[in-house]
UniProtKB/TrEMBL annotation:
Family, per entry: Belongs to the ustYa family.
Organism ancestry: Eukaryota, Fungi, Dikarya, Ascomycota, Pezizomycotina
TM segment ranges: 23-44
Start and end residues of each stretch annotated as Disordered: 174-197
Pathway noted in the entry: Mycotoxin biosynthesis
Entry keywords, A to Z: Membrane, Transmembrane, Transmembrane helix
GO biological process, one term: mycotoxin biosynthetic process
Source organism (scientific name): Mytilinidion resinicola
Cross-referenced PANTHER family: CYCLOCHLOROTINE BIOSYNTHESIS PROTEIN O, YALI0B05434P
Name listed for the protein in its UniProt record: Uncharacterized protein
Length: 246
């Protein structure tokens, strides 16, 4: 008969409806995490695969590197035909439309735009300076203000290129010793090749991409848009080959 529970009535826990369970049991939480992980794998499959490949190829901290022994490459120092050939071999061949390493994009009937990779620009500059040294009389530089400006630009560009990589490999000399092990005064003019291993970027992939793009029909190419603050050819091409073609 009593519609209200009396204050002194002890609450009957035994017969009360099902006791409250916590909403997040360990099992439910695990199921949610598992489902999210499965969806993430499905949605980001491509990116995860690329990431795993990068980890596998040791590319996570940047490009692949290898160690290269610097030595006195006489061919690159040669003033004649041997040197011409060696320098030519460093870059993709020039095309009808542009110099070595430059990719020409035909925007419309009358308009083309070039782009290139920084290192081929630096090599072009060194090659131009080499030509000036070995193949042009000194008077040309004095007389031709355009050439002087180009040489000035090239010096500035190559200096920045060298500072950018700031290769801090320690270069030691190996002074000759006599039979008692005493150092002998070093002979020569200090040009002795310092044979040290340097850690260098592996250019094989870049060269492959440059070869492909410089040989492509300018009409089939697209001018690559700015994507990041720093856009590197290898990385960009790997992630979006379609960004380079119409
Ligand atoms: C070609 O493109 C350039 C640059 O966008 C533009 O100035 C020019 O008018 C275009 N020419 C034709 C024929 O569409």
């Amino acid at each position: 008969m009593a519609p209200y529970q009396h204050l002194d009535d002890p609450y009957d826990y035994e017969s009360s409806p099902t006791p409250r369970k916590p909403i997040f049991t360990a099992c439910r939480a695990f199921s949610v995490v598992f489902a999210v992980a499965v969806f993430a794998v499905i949605i980001f499959q491509a990116q995860i695969w690329t990431l795993l490949q990068k980890i596998h190829f040791g590319q996570c901290g940047g490009a692949i590197t290898h160690n290269v022994l610097f030595h006195d490459r006489k061919d690159l120092g040669d003033a004649g035909a041997v040197g011409d050939q060696a320098w030519k071999a460093l870059m993709p061949p020039p095309t009808a439309d542009s110099r070595e390493g430059v990719i020409t994009v035909q925007i419309n009937e009358t308009y083309t735009l070039p782009y290139e990779a920084s290192y081929t620009h630096a090599l072009h500059c060194l090659d131009a300076m080499r030509n000036m040294f070995f193949h042009e009389p000194a008077s040309v530089l004095q007389a031709n203000i355009k050439k002087r400006e180009h040489m000035g630009h090239c010096l500035s560009y190559v200096a920045q290129h060298v500072l950018c990589s700031a290769d801090d490999t320690i270069e030691r000399v190996k002074p000759p010793r006599d039979s008692a092990g005493n150092y002998l005064p070093e002979e020569g003019d200090g040009q002795s090749a310092r044979q040290e291993l340097h850690t260098c970027r592996d250019r094989s992939k870049t060269e492959q991409i440059l070869h492909e793009l410089t040989h492509a029909e300018p009409r089939s190419l697209k001018y690559p848009e700015v994507r990041r603050e720093v856009d590197r050819l290898d990385e960009y091409y790997e992630e979006c080959p379609g960004c380079f073609y119409n």
